[in-house]
Amino acid sequence: MSKTNFRSILAVITDPFAADQPAALKAAMLARRSKARLILLNAFMIPQPVNDVPMDSTEQILQSAIRHRREKILRMAPRWRRQGVKIKVVVEWDYPAHEAIIRAVQREGADLVVAHSHRQGRIARWVLANTDWELIRHCPCPVWFVRQAELPRRPNLLVAVDPFHAHAKPARLDDRLLDAANGLSHMLGATVAVVHAYHAPVLAATSTMTEPFRMPSAAYATRDGVERAKSMVCRLAERFDVDVDRCHLIEGDPSYALPQFSSRHKTDVLVMGAVSRSMISRAAIGNTAERVIDGVDCDVLVIKPRGFKTSVPKVRPR
User: pTM for the complete prediction?
Assistant: First the structure.
């Protein structure tokens, strides 16, 4: 994803029978602005009961379920087609959900997935949101997690960067995040701000944090270290034409500091990176992304490093 517009956007329709479809609405808006093709995907594991086929015919039950779901989704399409959006509807029996989505991404050549985030507290995290977590880990293209169906006329984008590349983050990922934000700025007329959250240099014995204390990076042990980090963030932002007064350095665990900061600054979309290099680093960064998505009220756009390859097979194993 860059300053060029999207070519193919895949919207995840979790329940085609639901009245509200925030992911589809947001994806249609993005497709219209970028002149991209819109793919409306519904992948299901257990078909709903049907009355028009024999219950002992597995193939007929699945085909009937696919037909009913497709008809329901097609009712969403006419208004977007009238706005010039090219739409393809895909309904298939495939599972688990995140693998079905990623297989569709690979098959359709999608360069953005738009999905409704169900992450609203601990119960939802465990019961509903495993797909969110797996998409963060495995989806090869950026994933836009939707909280609200609409965006304001001039949305506020906040890009979370890490100039010291913690957790062995590839050095070019921050550039990729800001490049994506610039592309959205041109497409949506958005404003872009940059933020870096770091652990404050305090001692465990004097910490008042309610979360388990973790020793900060030595990079921030002195005022000079903090100033150096601020300078690095500003230089990074300037390369992408972001004003210095829109660069922010904040103390605290990113998992908690970023949601608080984004709320105070009325952020509409938080842009952040995710890395998968090993089981240990994947778990650490995944947990950070999970807690951030849990904590923010805005949309979140999660982007992988360039060249990331998914482990999900293109064809569902038998």
Answer: 0.86
